[in-house]
Specification:
The protein is of the alpha/beta class. Helix content is 43%, strand content 13%. It has one domain: Protein-Tyrosine Phosphatase, Chain A, CATH 3.90.190.
Amino acid sequence: MNNYILRRIPLSDTLNLRDLGGYAAKNGGITRWNAFLRSACPNSLSECDGEILRGLGVTDVIDLRGGGNADEVMRGYESLPFIDVHRIPIGDESVPKTASEVPYGYLRMAEYCNIPQVFRILADSRGGVIFHCFAGKDRTGVVAAMLLMLAGVADEDIIADYTLTYAYFIKRLRADFSRSDAEPNVFKPLPDHMEGFIRLFREKYGDVRSYLLQKGVTEGQLQSILNKFVTRRNNYEKKDTY
């Protein structure tokens, strides 16, 4: 186990790899570091990157993208023998034309047929799990939000976590919206996008736990996720933070 904690994990050529630990959760809890990490797709992974991921205890990677682009970069993770790679697309490759459509697109991702499979892997993994799409913003943002909602993290923290992608991926995002006929704000992780998704999800389904149970994820699997992801604050091991 490493003796440090980092919000963003600085791999050599992977943007926006971030830990979901350190958020206040319900009933006096706090989300654990090194349990679940969100990321953009890796461009490549060096030998040093592999050692960092091994030190973090990562055992599984979930690629949330669909179509041919999922084949472009998986050679990085697949070269690491201690990591199991799972390709589980949620949603399609379509891009909304207006910013007002984004929360509805996120709701469709949350409703995608493969979402229960994603959460079963989160429950059954041997160690830490990285989940990613292309930018680590949309599909990744939906799964991260659902995980944090399940843990009882405040909406403000869920929204703040989502918007961090703007700082870490802005150069690539600017290139994307300069080549598209969609509104530029479609590509930006704006607070309104995540706030709108959370509102739409709760209006339709109530809460994440009930929704996932309805979709076939078991009580035991949900409890396994919470056991991995949430600890009591007074039991939290203090570490050096950089």
